From TrEMBL:
<protein>
    <recommendedName>
        <fullName>Carbonic anhydrase</fullName>
        <ecNumber>4.2.1.1</ecNumber>
    </recommendedName>
</protein>
<dbReference type="GO" id="GO:0004089">
    <property type="term" value="F:carbonate dehydratase activity"/>
</dbReference>
<comment type="function">
    <text>Reversible hydration of carbon dioxide.</text>
</comment>
<dbReference type="InterPro" id="IPR018338">
    <property type="entry name" value="Carbonic_anhydrase_a-class_CS"/>
</dbReference>
<dbReference type="GO" id="GO:0005886">
    <property type="term" value="C:plasma membrane"/>
</dbReference>
<keyword id="KW-0862">Zinc</keyword>
<dbReference type="InterPro" id="IPR001148">
    <property type="entry name" value="CA_dom"/>
</dbReference>
<keyword id="KW-0325">Glycoprotein</keyword>
<dbReference type="InterPro" id="IPR041874">
    <property type="entry name" value="CA4/CA15"/>
</dbReference>
<feature type="signal peptide">
    <location>
        <begin position="1"/>
        <end position="19"/>
    </location>
</feature>
<keyword id="KW-0732">Signal</keyword>
<dbReference type="InterPro" id="IPR023561">
    <property type="entry name" value="Carbonic_anhydrase_a-class"/>
</dbReference>
<dbReference type="Pfam" id="PF00194">
    <property type="entry name" value="Carb_anhydrase"/>
</dbReference>
<keyword id="KW-0479">Metal-binding</keyword>
<dbReference type="InterPro" id="IPR036398">
    <property type="entry name" value="CA_dom_sf"/>
</dbReference>
<feature type="domain" description="Alpha-carbonic anhydrase">
    <location>
        <begin position="19"/>
        <end position="281"/>
    </location>
</feature>
<dbReference type="GO" id="GO:0008270">
    <property type="term" value="F:zinc ion binding"/>
</dbReference>
Amino acid sequence: MDFSVYLPTLLSLLSQCTAQWCYQSQYSCDDTCSDPIRWAAQFPSCGGLRQSPINIVTSKVHVNSALPPFEFIGYTNTINITVKNKGHSAHFTLPQSVRLTGGALPGQYRAAQFHFHWGGDGRPGSEHTIDGERFPMELHIVHIKEPYGCLAEAEHDMAGIALLAFLFEEAADDHPYLDTVIAALGRVQNNGSSTVIPNFRLSDILPSAKDLHRYYRYVGSMTTPGCEQAVAWTLFHRTLSISSRQLYAIAQQCRFWTGKPMTDIFRPTQPLDGRVVYQSKASGTLTSAVHLWYGVFSAVLGTTGLIH
Ligand SMILES: *[C@@H]1O[C@H](CO)[C@@H](O)[C@H](O)[C@H]1NC(C)=O
Ligand SMILES: *[C@@H]1O[C@H](CO)[C@@H](O)[C@H](O)[C@H]1NC(C)=O
Ligand SMILES: [Zn+2]
């Protein structure tokens, strides 16, 4: 038997099994990475029925009067945060003093990290779309439910992770605090490199809490492999603004683990598969709703028909 005939086939099969996952933008004929359509072959959850991101069809959302505002704890603290290039995106690590409760979430959550999804060269790069429209950029703040310590512990709880998502819209003026973020990304160009942003305040990059009463809620997944179906998603109506200069700059800073420019880092939208997207009702008298959180959340989850 001539093994030299079989060896290349065998090697290519092996490399398919262990291929690094990648975004569509990274895939090319001479790159064997696993692009989003192939994620499920390696990470079965990515082919599940509660995947994210999704397209939100505003005419089909269900308005729910029992989705109260959030309580953002530690968001105004001045903190030193570590930024690390993870090969597919850059993560900004948050300390445990940053927490989240309210919003009909079933418990207390501790912040873990935040990160952005962007396009490149003027192309939009949000993960969620609204009525088919993709926005320039999206911010995700990841929180883990107590007492879980990490995603692996939370992944069997369908609300184990609370993800807050903010869409960016292009504006004439610079976002006053994003240049710090852009500069930090410039210091973590390559996979594995890290830096610190001293004296950072999460609230500086966000709208004020009083403008965050209106949001969409649905149950979904992480948007990168393993696509764990453990996420209570919140997408705020209120957008953040970013200038075209900043938008251009932010996608220029980092490189993927392959060395290519880190652009178009978003997963394509996934089917709703019978899920319902809820929308909170803008209202001032929400105190009594807080006591209903359990009922609401089980209604929000239960009507999807996916809780047993
Ligand atoms: C941030 O880092 C600086 C310099 O290392 C240090 O003096 C300061 O105490 C740190 N702040 C916090 C909130 O940890
Ligand atoms: C990216 O860097 C991390 C260390 O931070 C390393 O574990 C990983 O293997 C690297 N990925 C690639 C594809 O080189
Ligand atoms: Zn994300």
